[in-house]
Amino acid sequence: MMTRRSPSRGLPESGIALLLACLSILLAGCANHTIYHPRKNPPGITTWSEQVLRGRLLLRLQWAKPEGPGPFPAVLVHPEANHEAREMRGVIRELAAAGYLAVAADYKRMANGVIREPLFTWQDPDDPRALLDLVRRRPDVDPERIGALGFSQGGVYSLLIAAYTGQIRAVVAYYPVTDFSTWLREASKGNAGRRFVFRLIRRSFRKQTGVKSAEELDEILGRASAMRQAEAIRAPVLLVHGDRDTTAPLGESERLAAKLKELGREVELVVVPNARHVFNWMDREQARTAWEPTLRWLDRHLKEEGDGSQTSAPTRKHKPRKTSGSGFGQAESR
User: Fold this and answer.
1) Where are the alpha helices (H) located in the chain, listed in sequence order?
2) Assessment of whether the complete model's pTM goes beyond 0.90
């Protein structure tokens, strides 16, 4: 296949695409999505697939629903980078078995009738609320009891949906990058090969966004960074992170937890010992260690009775017992 030359240092376009693919693999890791969650529907659970086009944003959806008419509390689920909604079927089955209407989503964009896969899938101001609006309109969903759960890039999506809509009741974010500018800067401090790769990644970010300066790029990365949007995140947030994560280091979640605590938000950080990036798709026991507090958090904020008000609470940092044993969206500020 012929490749077009980039004006920067003569690197083929396919080379930049390969580097971005490597970044997706770096953020997503080698994942086995059936290592812990059910491969088949539990009794009484109904599942189906759907595609919805909202403007130029194509949502590819997987649904799971408990038995009965509802209205049910709901959970929006987003996979890690370079993975699809269908790979979250085990997660949504388990959520449905726990009494939630669950939907997993991944995003593409349409241009002239052709599906595109840009680095920045959220480009229009209302893109962050596209999935939430679909779920809130369902008669079998309680629109006041909707949570967001995501893994890596999906954790970023979950935090941003909470920030940009103000209508998420609880968030669970597994090992997210919370400040992309800081992450890129820190990640580029390694050896010469790593520095070269991350310079190309930053250049590719600039090219895909069309910005003309580093300042403009930083502004876009800021809109995609939960740390920069922390003041708008009012939902209780559970962060789950491995202490041996070298892709999105533990400090990403620690800094966000500290910022949310400073703002008086309810936030909790679960640190999983000896766990790397996407640990819950690689080690069954580590997955269990993280999933149990995930369900408790969702049950506490989406099921338990209360007046729905947000209350402040101290940050709690848990270290479960030791066990054996890697894109983001652009959105406009409100």
Assistant:
1) 13-28, 89-97, 130-136, 153-165, 180-187, 192-209, 214-223, 250-262, 284-302
2) no
Contact 281/312 with Cβ under 8 angstroms? no
Closest CA to 184 of 66, 291, 27: 27
pLDDT in tens, 14-63: 333 444 444 454 555 567 898 999 999 999 999 999 999 998 899 999 99
d(CA 161, CA 131) in angstroms, rounded, equals 9
Tokens of 209: 């966004």
- Is residue 62 within 8 Å of residue 89, measured between CB atoms? yes
Q: d(Cα 203, Cα 127) in Å, to the nearest integer?
A: 25
Peptide bond just before 71 cis, omega within 30 deg: yes
What DSSP assignment string belongs to 26-67? Answer: HHH-S--TTSSS-SSPPTT-EEEEEEEEETTEEEEEEEEE-S
Measured torsion, CA atoms of residues 317, 25, 40, 36, in degrees rounded to the nearest 10: -40
Strands 141-151 vs 72-78: parallel, antiparallel or unpaired: parallel
